[in-house]
Amino acid sequence: MKKYDLVKRLRKNCGLTEAEVEKLIKAKIDTFAEALAEGERGFLPGFRTFVSVARAARKGRNPKTGEALSLPSYNAIKFTAAKRLRDAMLRKDTAYPATAKES
Fold it and tell me: Whole-angstrom Cα distance, residue 6 to residue 52?
């Protein structure tokens, strides 16, 4: 789903204008980005948990030349799907095509 599709669906479901929906989406993303940068967790009930994790410095290798490199430490984002989302993805009644074994 692209942002355009999300805006259209939310507009239809919430009765807001497209501009209002886009403003809400941007505000939510910006708020999560600020919170993660400050080391806080981001939580959307029934959807996902976002956590900032520190990655240690390590040695790497340039795949093209084989030269050894020193990669610096950095902060990454870890996403954990909520149980409700995982269960929805694993339901048998979803629109996924049946495999030969299920037929």
Answer: 25
The answer, yes or no, to whether residue 96 has pLDDT greater than 80, is: no
Query: Tens digits of per-residue pLDDT, 28-59?
Result: 889 988 888 888 888 888 888 888 888 999 99
**End-to-end Cα spacing for the chain:** 29
What are the backbone dihedrals phi and psi of residue 47, each rounded to the nearest 5 degrees, phi first? -125, -75
Sequence-separated contacts (24+) of 27-30 with Cβ below 8 Å: none
pLDDT score for 94: 54
**pTM summary value:** 0.59
Helices and strands in the chain: count of H runs, count of E runs: 3, 5
How many other C-beta atoms lie within 10 A of the C-beta of residue 36? 19
The 10 Å Cβ neighbour count of residue 78 is 11
C-alpha 37/C-alpha 22 separation (Å) is: 23
